[in-house]
Amino acid sequence: MNQADIYHVGLAERSYDIHLQAGCLENIGAVTRKLFPSAERCMVVSNDIVAPLYLDVVEKSLATAGWKVFKHILPDGEHFKTVDTWSAIMDALMDSRLSRNEPIIALGGGVVGDMTGFAASCYRRGIPFVQVPTTLLAQVDSSVGGKTAVSHPHGKNMIGAFYQPRLVWIDSNVLKTLEPKQLRAGLAEVIKYGAIWDREFFNFIEDKAENLLSLDEAAINKVIVESCRYKAEIVMQDETEQGARALLNLGHTFGHAIEAMTHYTAYLHGEGVAIGMRMAARLSEMRGDAPQGTEAAMVKALIALELPIAPPTFTATEWLDAMGHDKKNIGSRIRYVLLKGIGQGFIAEDVGNDEIVSLIESFKDIT
Amino acid sequence: MNQADIYHVGLAERSYDIHLQAGCLENIGAVTRKLFPSAERCMVVSNDIVAPLYLDVVEKSLATAGWKVFKHILPDGEHFKTVDTWSAIMDALMDSRLSRNEPIIALGGGVVGDMTGFAASCYRRGIPFVQVPTTLLAQVDSSVGGKTAVSHPHGKNMIGAFYQPRLVWIDSNVLKTLEPKQLRAGLAEVIKYGAIWDREFFNFIEDKAENLLSLDEAAINKVIVESCRYKAEIVMQDETEQGARALLNLGHTFGHAIEAMTHYTAYLHGEGVAIGMRMAARLSEMRGDAPQGTEAAMVKALIALELPIAPPTFTATEWLDAMGHDKKNIGSRIRYVLLKGIGQGFIAEDVGNDEIVSLIESFKDIT
Question: Is the pLDDT of residue B330 over 60?
């Protein structure tokens, strides 16, 4: 097997490692046995797309390491990220009688990880959980940092907890079975790190777009490693998003609105974020925060990654209403992550509704 | 107004004060305004017993201090402590569009506090919450320490979070409208502190039983103050119940089983705990952990407080099954809080099912 890259997320008693290694999936049994020496049982939560591909390997590895394994399979898709689906996980946990020291393992993408993490945080007021992310988006973003949630009909990820995993176990080999659309959606979150902090990384991703889309091992491993490093650093600085961590929401206020207005069926999360980053870039230019050309640079990179760039057509009122419920607001004001240029994100607290209306209108004719 | 007693629960960034003062209910507006200077809106959650009595005072006080107040009223009773009731609080929070820095206030007993706290912990991954406990049980126990939860059909308080309030605001005057049955149930949790740690306090409660039952101000204030002091100390030592805090579960493994087997309708929580403490005392004697007379001393005190002492009739299998889901288990073993005598609790990890069977059988003839 390849060399492992390991990042430590240092959060006092909530610290954990991110372990990246091609082919490591089959070692999940051994590592969890070592991490939870006194536990007997565990539960693997996956979905009906991932389970047929990888649950066998995981289950075998766990059984070999002496685990009694319970399983719970979710329906795939963002629109199943609901209180009802979470409640069914809770029922399965109750039936399994898992104890406080026995772990739950999330095998899947961001939706599986977010819901499993929230279930782990609630069952017996918290049991250990392990992230085994199988999509690029989950590997570079959602599996690290402890944001767990389900959505409410009135807002995405509005019900959840900050609850850190005890381990993030990333096998880049599993990306080989990932739908190209899902791979591209993950790359939206990767280029986001570049857009916020690192113009060089942004350029690297654009330059290597073809290699990334064809899963060239060196390129894909570099972006996973760098992304996890960024994510781990920011989570250590600001675990519960009181400040700097909010920058990671670049494109997300618009993106969540896009997902909500289209009922979580038309766009993947990463696709919404891609369009949202383009909108944030334009807004930054319109306000004079970013130099001209910022939106063009963003658009060029997103096109190279074969991501969507055109906001869906809704009225300004519909946009504002959909964004009003975004949970990063302070008071009644909406906070936006904007750019001072590619590689430099910042939080704007003073964006007026009229500016959003102008932005939405500006997309009417020329997209 | 009387002098205030204030205890500080020191938990780093999760620290807060317990404020005890007869008549302080009408100052809830001023204190929350000071605590959350940048917030505009808040939500008060209460139930249909407490709201008609005290919601007006609270609402007026909040409005006077400049708060925009949302309200949500729950049905009263332990059997409404469900995912569905919690989900309705989440809907109300979504409708209110409360922001991350805007607080939710629990006005009621333990059920209201536990559910409101759990809702606060989940909404937008956590908003501030304030406990205004209106039952003795909530004032001396459940409002302090951050244990929040709802119940699952298969086990009490199985779904929840450790989530500390930002303030506990206790007005002992409200006990004047409390049903005598509820007052007695609260005294069960008070005498528990004595049984675990302090024989002198135990004796004081027994001696003053009549004064306490008639709400003599000096006596009742002393027990609230002492109980909050015990609770605050143990929470500071062991916030998430990894060790010493588990002692507070004296009588709770049996008590939860009693509540569950009777579907949360026949016994108040404190009544279940009273019977459970008596059972724990007998088990301690049977095992030779406690000297003879321990159970008799417990029974005498419980009778003085007019609390029930007779376990309901169920088979040993029913008891074991009902206790199997109690969330304080490690692995498949059930942990019991037992006594080395009145004033000295300890955790027993080695209680066999056969001992429980003998205990249950011993209650068959002589109760």
Answer: no
Q: Does A180 touch chain B (CB under 8 A)?
A: no
Q: Give the domain range for residue A234.
A: 194-365
* Residue that is last in its domain, among A147, A177, A207: A177
For A60, counting Cβ atoms within 10 Å of its Cβ (0-12 exposed, 13-18 middle, 19+ buried), the class is middle
Within this chain, do residues B224 and B171 fall inside the same structural domain, yes or no?
no
Residues A27 and A169 grouped into a single domain: yes
Domain count, chain B: 2
- Are residues B270 and B201 part of one domain? yes
Residue among A161, A329, A330 whose CB faces B125 most closely:
A161
Q: Mark which of B177, B207, B236 sits at the end of a domain.
A: B177
Instruction: Determine how β-strand A104-108 pairs with β-strand A41-47.
Output: parallel
- For residue B331, pLDDT over 80 is answered with no
pLDDT, average across residues B160-177: 97
Pick the closest to residue B186 from B123, B132, B141 (CA basis).
Answer: B141
A191-237 pLDDT tens trace? 999 999 999 999 999 999 999 999 999 999 999 999 999 999 999 99
Hey, are the CB atoms on B332 and A40 less than 8 Å from each other?
A: yes
Q: Which residue intervals of chain B are DSSP H helices?
A: 28-35, 56-64, 83-96, 110-122, 136-137, 180-197, 199-207, 209-213, 217-237, 252-261, 269-286, 294-304, 316-324, 353-365
Are B167 and B200 in a shared domain?
A: no
pLDDT attached to residue A366: 57
Q: Is A182 within the bounds of a domain?
A: no
Q: Which of A166, A192, A269, A282 is catalytic?
A: A269
B195 with B172, same domain: the answer is: no
Region of residue B343 (left: phi > 0; alpha: psi -120 to 50; beta: else): left
Q: Using pLDDT thresholds of 50, 70 and 90, give the confidence band for residue B360.
A: very high
| Per-residue pLDDT at B108 | 98
- The mean of the pLDDT values for chain A is 94
Q: Is the pLDDT of residue B162 over 80?
A: yes
Nearest to B147 among A122, A123, A125 (CB): A125
Question: Does the complex come out with an ipTM higher than 0.90?
Answer: yes
Cβ neighbours for B159, distance < 8 A, ≥ 6 positions apart: A90, A122, A123, B83, B118, B149, B150, B151, B152
In CATH, what number is assigned to the domain containing residue A279?
1.20.1090.10
Query: Which positions ≥6 away from B233 have C-beta within 8 Å?
Result: none
